[in-house]
């Protein structure tokens, strides 16, 4: 086995999955409340009227309370639905029923929009395993968000939602990996520069 970026990524992802798995329910609740407030602040500061985001799973930093808030404020929320070809479709989120896409990720049950629906949003929130201080994002290895962000002509601000210990000095990267503009963690909002 080589020690190239792909094997380094696999090892780091395994470590990060384990760290997330052993977080206590109390830690998760406290961190989710802080992240929600910071996401509200970010969306408010940017004057966001349309957001592309994702429904967090139980081990991810929580986005659900924020998405409920956004829907209640009349902010249009689009959520990703993975496709077999490696692209993402998008669906409006109404804060109600959920289903699972082909990758087992939670998705809305509303109408499916095509991949270009994301072009009309003014903030994108993405999941990440880790992000470094230059904004390089380490995803979970499927490449959906890298393909989406890499294909956008006029990309709005992109923020990854991570735990505090997942903002690091450097992450292994490859040519196709995409940077983010900042991160939202339980401690706050951090803008990042390449």
From TrEMBL:
It catalyses: (6S)-5-formyl-5,6,7,8-tetrahydrofolate + ATP = (6R)-5,10-methenyltetrahydrofolate + ADP + phosphate. One of its GO terms (molecular function) is 5-formyltetrahydrofolate cyclo-ligase activity. The keyword Metal-binding applies. Keywords: ATP-binding, Ligase, Magnesium, Metal-binding, Nucleotide-binding. It is an enzyme of class 6 (ligase). InterPro entries: FTHF_cligase, FTHF_cligase-like_sf, NagB/RpiA_transferase-like. Its EC number is 6.3.3.2. Its cofactor is Mg(2+). Coiled coil: none annotated. The keyword Amino-acid biosynthesis does not apply. Belongs to the 5-formyltetrahydrofolate cyclo-ligase family. This is 5-formyltetrahydrofolate cyclo-ligase. It comes from Antiquaquibacter soli.
């Amino acid at each position: 086995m080589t020690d190239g970026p792909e094997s380094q990524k696999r090892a780091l992802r395994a470590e990060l999955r384990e760290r997330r798995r052993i977080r206590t329910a109390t830690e998760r609740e406290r961190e989710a409340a802080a992240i929600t407030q910071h996401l509200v602040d970010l969306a408010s500061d940017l004057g966001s009227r349309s957001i592309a985001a994702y429904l967090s799973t139980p081990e991810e930093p929580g986005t659900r309370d924020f998405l409920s808030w956004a829907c209640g404020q009349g902010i249009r929320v689009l959520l990703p639905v993975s496709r077999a070809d490696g692209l993402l479709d998008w669906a409006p989120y109404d804060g109600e029923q959920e289903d699972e896409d082909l990758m087992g990720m939670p998705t809305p049950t509303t109408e499916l929009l095509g991949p270009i629906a994301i072009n009309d949003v003014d903030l994108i929130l993405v999941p990440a395993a880790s992000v470094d201080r230059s904004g390089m994002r380490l995803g979970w290895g499927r490449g959906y968000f890298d393909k989406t962000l890499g294909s956008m002509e006029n990309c709005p601000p992109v923020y990854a939602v991570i735990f505090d210990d997942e903002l690091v000095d450097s992450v292994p990267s490859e040519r196709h990996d995409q940077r983010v503009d900042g991160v939202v963690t339980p401690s706050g909002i951090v803008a990042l520069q390449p």
